[in-house]
Amino acid sequence: MSAQPAFTRADPDERRQSLIEATARVLGEKGAAGISVRAICAEAGVSPGLLRHYFAGVSDAIAEAYRWTGQRIGEALDAAVAEAGTDPRARILAYLTASFRPPIATPDLLASYIAFWSLTRSDPAVAAVRAEVYGDYRVRLEALLAQWRPDLADPPLTAIALTALIDGLWLELSLGDAPFTAAQASALAERWLDSLCG
């Protein structure tokens, strides 16, 4: 991927965002082993000293890239739910099945996530963002479940069970050549939802 043009008079927020996005791209292309101040700044088209102006170090930039990636996924999920209309069950299904198509089910996003996951055991800042991103996903899913089935006995446990299925299907679809289609994954998610909720 070609480097972005250098920022000479860009807004500080734009420069910081450029570095966040460059960090995510480098992680996706080179993995955790290939990440460095030099690699991030070369991808962003800026001098290496600029990263330390906006972040405490590479770990901080990675954590922010993870948070930004999680926000992008959240926006795609919210858009899917909004498109589903007002029926509570349709809204849950939209939330679950949005993970089976772009922009969520893509090899690029998977590559970035593999790098993020590989750092969660060794980098507390990245681990904290992982907990934040997954916690947000489950809280939103629990809210959708409560709207559909306010009588549900254990919404948190149901959300965990649904998330586990969605993650596995998303992983296979994102890797490519999955032994099932996105439509079949959606059908499995619907069956699992109905099985868990009675």
Automatic annotation (TrEMBL):
Pfam families: TetR_C_6 (PF13977), TetR_N (PF00440). This is TetR family transcriptional regulator C-terminal domain-containing protein. Residues 36-55 bind DNA. Gene3D superfamilies: Tetracycline Repressor, domain 2. PROSITE patterns: HTH_TETR_2. Residues 13-73 form the HTH tetR-type domain. Keywords: DNA-binding, Repressor, Transcription, Transcription regulation. InterPro entries: BetI_C, Homeodomain-like_sf, HTH-type_TetR-like_transc_reg, HTH_TetR, Tet_transcr_reg_TetR-rel_C_sf. GO terms for molecular function: DNA-binding transcription factor activity; transcription cis-regulatory region binding. It comes from Erythrobacter mangrovi.
